[in-house]
Amino acid sequence: MKISINANRCEPSPMRKFHPLALQAQKMGKTIYHLNIGQPDLPTPEAFYEKIRSFDSSTVAYAESPGMPILIEAIRAYYKRLGVELDTDDVLITSGGSEALLLTCLSILDPYTEVIIPEPYYPNYTTFVHAAGGVIRALHTGPEEGYHYADRKRIERLITKNTRAILVTNPGNPTGVVLDEQQMRMIADVAKENDLYLICDEVYREFCYDDKYGIPCMGRFDDIDDHLVIIDSVSKRFSACGARVGCVITKNKELQQAILKFCQSRLAVATLDQVGASALYSVDEGFFARSKEEYRRRRDLVVEELRRIPGVEVTMPMGAFYVMASLPVDNADRFQRWLLEKFDDHGDTVMFAPGAPFYETPGKGINEVRIAYVQELPKLKRAMELLKLGIARYRQEMM
Ligand SMILES: Cc1ncc(COP(=O)(O)O)c(C=O)c1O
């Protein structure tokens, strides 16, 4: 039997592919400190559960294909507070930001058309672009330059007759790079001048650790309506990953219609999840401030501890809840395997995501890792200790 070319071009997720080894390690009695997945541990606001408890329909019916009006209205009100006026049709509810990305790629890409993405980038972008038959043209950045990519010349150099879109993640996963207003404007201008889609993945919008960035939103530029596609989600913002609710936002009518066809073909997003998510948007402002403060403390601790480990290099992330670090090991993938199979300290070991799959360019990121600081401070401290011990022992035994 044959597997499609597009499926064969996709790779397993580096965040999830060690799961079988992790299960094995747990069976052997090890405790694993999970820093591999961006699964926030802060409690989901109570409003989510209350809203679902008060759901009083006798049937859990399909929701509307574009999304439930109650949720779309909540999202419009949230965007209005950010200074962005949206019409009802501008918002299509999806099963997480993941489906928003997939449906966008399916709607704008043809085989061999190109999407420019600064690397390192969220590895599932590869799957979404490849599923649609597209090709990623990576704008390479590395730890030595703090992963900064907002350089007009470098972006323009990658544009070809096949380019359909520029995709940026702001704030960035895995780098934590945040675009300032001028950089956002420059990227918007490049997209506009070259008649490209600008896909802006803003699922980490509220997590910026320097007040100078405010709450970044590309949607505030009102001259790129035909180009802009915003990817959004409740997963990270409200600590509600399992709700699987996101949305794609665009004012481009033709694109709305294209995406809507895919929405109709998959019928609807889960009704109860949408009901619960609709209540999330009215949490008090303090919720974001408190979450951000907690992640800031975690970031500071993780970066400080990483800097204490000999041979580790790290750039201070300014947003999201990840940090990329270069480790003094030959291969982070091999090191992760070894940590699960061969290492423990008093029964404990640690997991992160190896860096290479975050790069399109072959050979890059091999000794880098992405660490998600989504655990309480004492657990993060212990995880950093395990990383330090692991590196020292791995270097003795394996290098
Ligand atoms: C940059 C980025 N975009 C989109 C997503 C998709 O998240 P979800 O489908 O849970 O909204 C993630 C998840 O980690 C992400 O890191």
Task: Note the gap between the termini.
Answer: 42 Å
CATH architecture of the largest domain: 3-Layer(aba) Sandwich
- At the first level of CATH, the class of the largest domain is Alpha Beta
Write out the distinct hetero groups bound to the structure: pyridoxal-5'-phosphate
What Rg is obtained from the alpha carbons, in whole angstroms?
21 Å
Describe the largest sheet: 7 strands, mixed
Look up the CATH topology of the largest domain.
Aspartate Aminotransferase, domain 2
Poorly predicted parts: none
**For the record, what is the CATH homologous superfamily label of the largest domain?**
Type I PLP-dependent aspartate aminotransferase-like (Major domain)
Overall pLDDT level: 96
Q: Strands of the biggest beta sheet: in what spatial order?
A: 2-8-7-6-5-3-4
* Secondary structure tally, helices: 13
- The overall strand count is 13
| Fraction in beta strands | 15-25%
What does this structure look like?
- By secondary structure, the protein is an alpha/beta fold.
- It has two domains: 5-43 and 286-398, Aspartate Aminotransferase, domain 1; 46-280, Aspartate Aminotransferase, domain 2 (3-Layer(aba) Sandwich), CATH 3.40.640.
- Helix content is 38%, strand content 15%.
- The model has no long low-confidence stretch (mean pLDDT 96).
